Amino acid sequence: MRAPTVAVISMGGTIACAPSADGAGLVPRINAADTSPVNGVEVRSVPWSLTDSSEISFDEIVRLAREVREQTDRGADAVVITQGTDTLEETAYALSLLRPLDTPVVFTAAMRAPSAPGSDAAANLQAAISAALDPELTYATSGAVVLMNDQIHSAKWVQKTHTHRVDAFRSVGRSDLGVIHEGRATLLRCDPAPALPALLDSDRGDAVRVALLTAVLDQDTDLIHAVARCGYQGLVVEGLGGGHVSGAVAEALGELARDIPVVYASRTRAGAVLEKTYGSPGAELDLIGRGCIPSGQLTALKARVLLTLLLRSGHPRDKAEALLMAEGAAGDG
Ligand code: GLU
């Protein structure tokens, strides 16, 4: 019997870092797939880039999704993607919305570089490879998952919640999708079927920019007016608490919402935003009345990724907003 083949696409980040030649700190220099052999598996190493994850663009994620499909067309049984942890919650969600395959793609990364004591790089990569080959994962979800620290997270719910701990990744507000136990994936729950069509084939590569602003104490409206001047096609506001802003900010958002989609999320990053409780100026009833739309259970980061990909796919505004609200409402939280 032939050994299963897993394509490991390596995109830099800590898992690919080594001390720089000039001693100026860790930099991505190695191919993550080459860092540790995995028994009984043919690892097809796909060097993609050696960058920090802050450099990844939506165009690149779309190219990456096409590469995932290409790798399986060329006989890979599963695909693992490695990258930096900093934008992992966004890229994995983007890939899960593009959904290049019927089977899930597994993302992994490391909080400690391969050269650091107690590095999680090899353990995460090996666990990601076994999870990617596990048929149970295919039944539990589609799109993409994130595997870190022996925990499997749905791309939709995972967040990086700490600057340096190895357990920085959490499925906030719900249980993990699964765990790795004695080298095998054990699935703890299933994700509901996606509320959205796969967005890869409809992606038109349009240059779409969606801004993200956080609501704060004593906020002025200058940056909100700047969003229109700068030509953004959408705005996500990370609101206070249940998704609130001040009355003056709500007025500025309402003006903007006449021209572009404006989504309100919550800076608490846990729980669904409110839609029908508070009636003060700037609270959710006011925002909805002014044409802003709720992100539901999506964090602002996820809502921005979703709105960007929907607009890149040429969805008219009302369709994009309806799909965003359906995706924000869907789930087990
Ligand atoms: N800041 C780097 C990145 O996101 C390293 C972070 C990491 O991989 O943990 O690529």
UniProtKB/TrEMBL annotation:
Organism: Mycolicibacterium diernhoferi
Classification via Pfam families: Asparaginase, Asparaginase_C
Protein name: Asparaginase
Keyword Disulfide bond: no
SUPFAM superfamilies in the cross-refs: Glutaminase/Asparaginase
This protein's record includes keyword Transcription regulation: no
Active site: residue positions: 14
One GO process term, biological-process aspect: asparagine metabolic process
Domain of life: Bacteria
Keywords: Hydrolase
Record-annotated Asparaginase/glutaminase C-terminal domain positions: 209-323
Family per record: Belongs to the asparaginase 1 family.
GO molecular function: asparaginase activity
